[in-house]
C-alpha cells in the first residue's frame, strides 16, 4: 500500500516509519540512518524543518572554504557548498594563481530586478498606449504601503513599461515592472507588488472614467517576477602579462604565448559551439552555485537566468571571454546574479549566516562581485587543466578519497594509497587492486 493521504499531517517519525515499511529493503537500518541526520539542537532542527514541507532529515553536503581570493584588493575566504570532489581545490588553486598576479577585479553593472503582469485586453494597442500614462500613474502609487520600507532603504519600483505582444498572441499585453531591491533578492517584495498591480489593473479598467463601457474587458492571466534579469549583472575579470604564464607553460613543455593562445582558443570554442559552451558554463556554475548555496541564495533562479543570458543573441554561448592584447591576457565573465544578503534563507540558515560573516557581511553588490570572481576562477582552473594535463588527473586524485571511503580502507591503507597514486592513474579497479595487495 503506497498511496497515502495526509502524509504532511504525520509526525516526522510517522513519516519515516511509513517510508521504511513501504519502500525500503531494511527498514530498521533506514530508520536508524535517517533519524541520525537530525541536528542535535532541536531549535535549529525546527528552523531547518520549516524550510519545506515533509522534511524527514537533513541531507549533508560538504561546507568548504576556498581561501586567498583577492578581489578588488581585498582578501576573502569563500564558503562553498558542493559535492563535486575537485571544485573547491580548483577554485583555491586559481585564487592563489591570480592572487600572485594582482587578483580578481569586479564591478556591478546593474541591479535591476524585473516582474511581469500578463493580461488580455479586448481593445487595440494604440488605445492602450494612449491610456498607459494614466494606468502607470495609478499603479505606481497603488502599492505605496508595500513599498514603504524598501523606499526607505533606497529601493522600490523604478519603472513600469507596457509591452505589446498583440502581433504574436491576440489581445495579449504585459506590464514589465522594474525594481530596485537593495540588499535583498526581493522575490517576495516583487511578487507582492505585482499581485497588487494585477488587482489594481483590473480595478482601473472596471472603474476609470477614462474608459468607455466597451473598453472595460480586461483579464489578468498571471503576475510573477521574471528570473531573467539581464540588467542585474556583474563583470569580473583577471588580467596579467602573458609572460607570467611562463612557469606553468614550461611545466607543460610550452612557451607562455602558446599556452595563452591555447587558453584563448578554448574560450573561443565555447563562444562558437553550444555543446562546448554548455560544459564551459557548467564549469562556471560549479563555482557560482557553491557560493550561492553557501550564502542561502536561490541557485535555480541564478542558473535559469544565466543560461537565458548565455543565449541572448539567439545562440547559447560561453559567458566568459578571453582577449590577448599588448602582451596581456584578460579573462572576463559577465554574468547576471540576482543575489541578496538580507531576507530569505540568508538570515534563517545558521551556516548561511556564518558564510556572510566570513565574507565580512557584504552588501548584495559585493556578494555579486565575490560570486562572479569564484565563477571566473573555476572557469579558469577548468580551462587551464583542459588545455594542459586534462581534468581527470586532478579530478581523480580528489575522487581517490571517495573511492577509499567507499572501499572502507583503513587509515594506514589510505595513507599508502595517497602516496602510491601520486604517480599512478586512479580508477576504482586500480584502487581495489591496491587495497587487496596492502591488507
Ligand atoms: C566539470 O564539473 C566541469 C568541467 O567539465 C568544465 C569545463 O569543461 O570547462 C571541467
Explain what you see.
- The protein has 17 helices and ten strands.
- The protein has 439 residues and is of the alpha+beta class.
- The strands form three sheets. It has a four-stranded antiparallel beta sheet.
- Helix 4 (87-99) crosses helix 14 and helix 9 (256-272) packs across helix 10.
- (R)-mevalonate binds at residues 84, 279-280, 282-283, 286, 382-383, 386, 391.
Summarize it.
The chain is α+β, with helices and mostly antiparallel strands. It has 4 domains: 7-49, no CATH class; 80-110 and 230-389, 3-hydroxy-3-methylglutaryl-coenzyme A Reductase, Chain A, domain 2 (Alpha-Beta Complex); 113-226, Hydroxymethylglutaryl-CoA reductase, class I/II, NAD/NADP-binding domain (Alpha-Beta Plaits, 2-Layer Sandwich); 395-437, no CATH class. 50% of the residues lie in helices and 19% in strands.
- Total strand count, please? 10
CATH architecture of the largest domain: Alpha-Beta Complex
Q: In oligomeric terms, what are we looking at?
A: single chain
**The CATH homology group name of the largest domain:** 3-hydroxy-3-methylglutaryl-coenzyme A Reductase, Chain A, domain 2
Order of H and E elements: HHHEEHEEHHEEHEEHHHHEEHHHHHH
Q: How much of the polypeptide forms β-strand, as a percent range?
A: 15-25%
Q: Determine the CATH topology of the largest domain.
A: 3-hydroxy-3-methylglutaryl-coenzyme A Reductase, Chain A, domain 2
Q: Strand count, sense and closure of the main sheet?
A: 4 strands, antiparallel
Estimated structural class: alpha+beta
Rg estimate, integer Å: 26 Å
Mean pLDDT: 96
What is the CATH class name of the largest domain? Alpha Beta
- How widely separated are the two ends? 46 Å
Heterogens: (R)-mevalonate
SS field, number of helical segments? 17
Report strand order across the widest sheet.
3-8-10-9
Number of domains: 4
